[in-house]
Amino acid sequence: MAAILWIVFILILFFLAQRSVYRLLGLKSVSYERTFSSSRLFAGQTVWMQETIKNRKRLPLPWLRVESLLPAQLVFKQRETNMSISSGDQLQNHASLFSVPPFTEIVRKHEIICPHRGKYRITSYTLSIGDIVGLTSKTIKQPADCEVIVFPKLRELSELPVDARRYLQSIRSMVSPIMEDHYYVAGIRPYRAGDSFRMMNWNATAKSGELLVHKRESMQDNDLTILLNAELLNAAHNVRVTQEHFEEALSYAASAAQYVVNGGGKVGFIYNGISEGNDGAVFRAPARSGAAHMDKLLEAMAGFQPVTTLGLTYLLVQLISERTRGQHYMLVSAFIDAKQEQLVRQMRNQGNSVELLLLGKEVALHG
Fold it and tell me: Where is the DUF58 domain (predicted)?
């Protein structure tokens, strides 16, 4: 009987000792990192999430669990045996289980599908370690700084309505990569035969080792401003369009902008809904060209919400009051009422061209 008591006593001491060791030293020299293969992608594309756990000490970790709340819109392509996911409408609890020997680094990758546009952030994760007998010894919460921005899905030009396609082609045909007849210097470009030496940028030439000249803007009026309507309720017919219709409209708008920019043109953007960091004001981006400008537009679109900050009617009145002439507009909307059609005609009478891209319809109103 005494021997049994001694064995029990020793086992209790061992249990308490190892538990104290793991509680004090278990998370020492342990690091965890989570990264994504790309922080920017388009809706429908996949991204790889990589988890890296390092144990830089002699003490092994029988088990280590990493838990975090992820947006439910990030869909794991496969569910592995060492991973568990509990999904809700907006969030999902993701847990990864590791067993880490001494001085070991483990890298684990998960393929994630991003079907929906948006900005998705992971702000923290929880590390829990267990002792030899499997009980939780210590749990800590750590901040994280991971973000995935999913841009709207881009469509081929052939997928846009015929009238919108022709309008975009006419806008793009105005773009001349050769004619530079404006006094404004827009950057530098390689020297072309026939360029005047007065256009030479000698500082840039000396740094790069190749002949570079000042690049000037063209005076051709090829700017396009895209108007995206955030309204989902058609009050005239008492019909509410779905979130899917809004995403389709946003996809059309992004595709139109991309097409013009890829052709060397300039694109501006106006959105009358909530956008991240805009404090309820109408989002307005001036017409500019270049890939960097397009990236900024796509990033802004990723944060658009279909909540109206200014009705389309009031927005059109505001544009008319600015008395601009010679501008090209494309209005992308799920619907348009009689009053708004009248305002569009008024914009055209001011000397602007306005193309309507209404979802599911071929509209015969051009300008």
Answer: 188-350
Quote the domain boundaries for residue 225. Answer: 157-178+220-358
DSSP 197: G
- For residue 364, CA distances in Å to 233, 255, 303 come to 23, 21, 32
The answer to whether residues 207 and 233 belong to one domain is no
What H or E segment, with its residue span, contains residue 287?
strand 283-288
In a domain, 173, yes or no: yes
Number of domains in the chain: 3
Give the Cα separation of 330 and 344 in Å (integer). 11
Biggest CA pair distance of the chain = 106
Same-domain check for residues 297 and 255: yes
Q: Edge to edge, what strands does the sheet with 353-358 contain? A: 283-288, 266-271, 223-228, 328-333, 353-358
Tokens matching residue 234? 């058609």
Among candidate residues 300, 326, 306, 261, the one with its CA nearest the CA of residue 40? 300
Would you say how long the chain is, in residues?
A: 367
**Pair 38, 138 in one domain:** yes
Tell me the pTM.
Answer: 0.79
Specify whether the CB–CB gap between 114 and 44 falls below 8 A: yes
Q: Cα 246 to the chain's mean position, in Å?
A: 16
Residues 227 and 199 in one domain: no
Pick 3 or 73 by higher pLDDT.
73
pLDDT tens digit sequence for 30-73: 999 999 999 999 999 999 999 999 999 999 999 999 999 999 99
